[in-house]
Amino acid sequence: MRDDFRRLCAVALIAAGLSIPAEAAEVTGVRIGESDGRTRLVLETSARVDAVVSRIAAPDRVVIDLPALRWRVDPSKIGPRGPIAKLRHGRQRGGGSRLVLDLAAPVGTVRTFVLPSQANRGYRLVVDLRAQTEGGLARRSSPAAGQPRAGPASPVPRPKPQRRKPLIVLDPGHGGVDPGAIGVGGTREKRVTLAHAQVLARRLKATGHYRVLLTRRNDRFIRLGRRVRIARESKADLFISLHADSHRKRAISGASVYTLSERASDRAAAALAARENKADLIAGVALDRQSSEIADILIDLSQRQTMNESAVFARILMGRLGKVRRLLRNTHRFAGFAVLKAPDVPSVLVELGYLSNRRDEKRLLSSAHRVRVADAIISAIDAYFARRRALRG
Predict the structure, then answer these.
(1) pLDDT digits (tens, 9 = 90+) for 69-122
(2) Where are the alpha helices (DSSP H) in the chain?
(3) What 8-state DSSP symbol labels residue 269?
(4) Rounded distance between C-alpha atoms, residue 101 and residue 88, angstroms
(5) How far is CA 16 from CA 259, 260, 306, 315, in A?
(6) What are the pLDDT digits (tens) for 322-344?
């Protein structure tokens, strides 16, 4: 896992808290060049721009998700070059930009990086595409005179390596003696989170692409530190903690996604983090007494790549969730949740909505809504791991 993170950190990452403001960056130039079987696309930008890159088949294309940009040039006017047949760009819901490379042929690897600003030049986002190679064909020698010409040699079969299915750990918040938030109609958060996690787990397993583990399968209390250890000890590839919020202002509604920050991004995030982290005291065990575990976590927090990967997944997830339900205005938030502190597992906490809002409470109790939310999360998981495979080549 950590080797993967080192490779991923060599390419464009969206660092927590460092997103480019929607009005800050402009695309001032687009160039495509070819050399040694490699096709290079360069976006010249007025400010540093990070990207989330996905490779998609049928039809073959490369999708580059970007922050909101102003395009001073039209990439669609650039002619075909190498495997790139056409370029398209547009806006996404939530304010981001998307650049799509329609491919005339599949590519083998995709690599992205950012070149820093230099004198009289802005930043450059570089996307390298390498042609897909065909291997395993036996060479044919010329037949001797008078001998019959042999037919074409068959490819030597090679067993395909069994790719390890990613492990997704789902964490239904609260449980047992800790009911979590209480809804305006009396709904308990612990039941909402477990119901959503069970639906998500079933539909994830049904894809056949993932292994799934729940931190709890019934109404039982599990310490926050234990939830983190479950993810670490199982060598999870992704950790998703599910919650439902409440607020004294009952008009507030919508979903949000949190990733780890030692300093909360706003007062609401700080208050919520403090309330969640105190849950360990309910069972008589304070989290800060788990000295060895927390000491390891505090040391390993210096490994920023995990936090960056969490932010990448959070950004993808926000785009998918926004298609099925309302999001808070400041959707991606940062807080010191204990369950997000696994140092080597990308982790997010999803606030599914507000139980203090009657409409949100009704949605969270709807089985149809649970399915829509689960499918949106699965779509984000698919895109996240597709991106990882593309970056690894």
Answers:
(1) 888 888 888 878 888 889 998 887 667 888 998 888 888 778 888 888 776 678
(2) 2-9, 189-207, 224-233, 267-277, 291-300, 304-321, 358-364, 367-392
(3) H
(4) 7
(5) 8, 8, 10, 10
(6) 999 999 888 888 888 888 877 78
Q: How far apart are CA 316 and CA 347, in angstroms?
A: 13
Token digits of residue 212: 């799934």
Exposure of 232 by Cβ count < 10 A (0-12 exposed, 13-18 middle, 19+ buried)?
buried
Rounded distance, CA 200 to CA 170, Å? 8
Q: Say whether the peptide bond before residue 161 is cis (omega within 30 degrees of 0).
A: no
Rounded CA separation 254/360 (Å): 7
DSSP 339: G
- Which of 343, 331, 336, 333 has its CA nearest to residue 307? 343
Show the tokens assigned to 94: 């939530």
Backbone angles phi, psi at 324, to 5 degrees: -120, -10
Q: Are 352 and 196 in contact (CB under 8 A)?
A: yes
- Residue among 259, 245, 268, 236 nearest 164 (CA): 236
Output the pLDDT for position 138.
Answer: 31
Q: Which residue has the higher pLDDT, 73 or 11?
A: 73
Q: Cβ(331)–Cβ(256) under 8 Å?
A: yes
Give the phi and the psi of residue 102 in degrees, each rounded to 5.
Answer: -75, 130
Q: Are 83 and 34 in contact (CB under 8 A)?
A: no
Residue reference for tokens 């010191």: 336
- Whether this prediction's pTM lies above 0.85 is answered by no
- Residue 333 makes CB contacts below 8 A (sequence gap 6+) with 256, 257, 258, 259, 265, 266, 268, 269
Residue whose tokens read 């009005």: 23
